[in-house]
Amino acid sequence: MHDIVTVAVTVFMGFFAMMNPIANTAVFVGMTGDFTPQQRRQTAIKALVAAFCIIAAFCLLGKGIFEIFGITLPALRLAGGILVFLVGYHMLQGSSSKLHTNEQATPDKGEKVQPADIAISPLALPILAGPGTIATAMNYSASGSMLNIIVTIAAFAILCLITFVCFLYGPKLVDMIGENGINITTRLMGLILTVIGMQMLIQGVHDAYLLFDITPIPVIIENA
């Protein structure tokens, strides 16, 4: 039971740091500034449902994807660790990672944007369920254990609910925290992500060593 709780907390913190609901709320408020409360609610629901479906699909199909493309778990952990580390590094520097932004997503002044235009892209992809989040989900669920898959999906579902509440009260939350508060939160999440990324790298190196470690065949030299 203790191990399950530890895994659940680790998975949740990994997702929380990667998605960073506080910073994403500021992005959401900026992108939906001209929307009515009803349109903002519909956009948030559509984006989070789409993000959840994407992550759940990768959690459930991760093992099959590995088999189809011949991917090993150490390879995923090495690549995912680098990816997560880079995202965390950019957040530590106080800048947004290109994996979680879309430069063409910001509408021009005076241009009316419909909720459907931003719910899937860029909100669901790549802001909420970007490559880093997908790599994190597959890393935690790739062992193939149904319990790990359920814990990973449940942790992301809880995070989606928290993000939904943040989105609904976005303007008030942003005003209450302020720009400095968002910057501090972003840097803290970046620190957590760099540590998680490094841990994934270490685990990947360890698993790769065990996977490809070949015990040398002893050679018996007989005296002539």
UniProtKB/TrEMBL annotation:
<feature type="transmembrane region" description="Helical">
    <location>
        <begin position="6"/>
        <end position="31"/>
    </location>
</feature>
<dbReference type="Pfam" id="PF01914">
    <property type="entry name" value="MarC"/>
</dbReference>
<keyword id="KW-0812">Transmembrane</keyword>
<dbReference type="GO" id="GO:0005886">
    <property type="term" value="C:plasma membrane"/>
</dbReference>
<feature type="transmembrane region" description="Helical">
    <location>
        <begin position="43"/>
        <end position="65"/>
    </location>
</feature>
<keyword id="KW-1003">Cell membrane</keyword>
<protein>
    <recommendedName>
        <fullName>UPF0056 inner membrane protein</fullName>
    </recommendedName>
</protein>
<keyword id="KW-0472">Membrane</keyword>
<feature type="transmembrane region" description="Helical">
    <location>
        <begin position="182"/>
        <end position="202"/>
    </location>
</feature>
<dbReference type="InterPro" id="IPR002771">
    <property type="entry name" value="Multi_antbiot-R_MarC"/>
</dbReference>
<keyword id="KW-1133">Transmembrane helix</keyword>
<comment type="similarity">
    <text>Belongs to the UPF0056 (MarC) family.</text>
</comment>
<feature type="transmembrane region" description="Helical">
    <location>
        <begin position="71"/>
        <end position="92"/>
    </location>
</feature>
<feature type="transmembrane region" description="Helical">
    <location>
        <begin position="146"/>
        <end position="170"/>
    </location>
</feature>
